[in-house]
Amino acid sequence: MALKVAVCVLLVGVALGLPQYNYDPPKAPETLYETPAESVQEPVQLYETPIIAEPQNIAPVVVAPPSEPMPQMPYEFDFGVADEESGNQFSHVENNDGQVTRGEYRVLLPDGRTQVVKFFDDGNGFNAEVTYEK
């Protein structure tokens, strides 16, 4: 047993004493970036210098609403669609007396309900009331 231990110690000693790989670590760089020896060519201007336009006033022009009814006022219209093949149903009714627009439209939704939108605009903005019918 002592002979086996002696042989193992001898082999480990020989292995450690043998020369290792001939590896030389790389030298640390002197600077992070190397400057090229000489430039290949001068830089070329590929694009023309852009023309910078003078700033413009891009605010929208606000036009006052007409003081009298427009020639197509008053008006009244309605239409509706009931397509039995696709099941699509919708309608729109609207009238205007020259001052106030009123109307209603209906749309059949995929869940079977009908969305009803009643609206009016009296010049102070669009107003709508949305309800659903089963």
From TrEMBL:
GO terms for molecular function: structural constituent of cuticle. GO terms for cellular component: extracellular matrix; extracellular space. Transmembrane segments: none annotated. Residues 1-17 form the signal peptide. It comes from the Eukaryota. The keyword Signal applies. PROSITE patterns: CHIT_BIND_RR_2 (PS51155). Coiled coil: none annotated. Pfam families: Chitin_bind_4. The keyword Nucleotide-binding does not apply. Keywords: Cuticle, Signal. PANTHER family: CUTICULAR PROTEIN 50CB-RELATED, STRUCTURAL CONTITUENT OF CUTICLE. This is Cuticle protein. It comes from Meganyctiphanes norvegica.
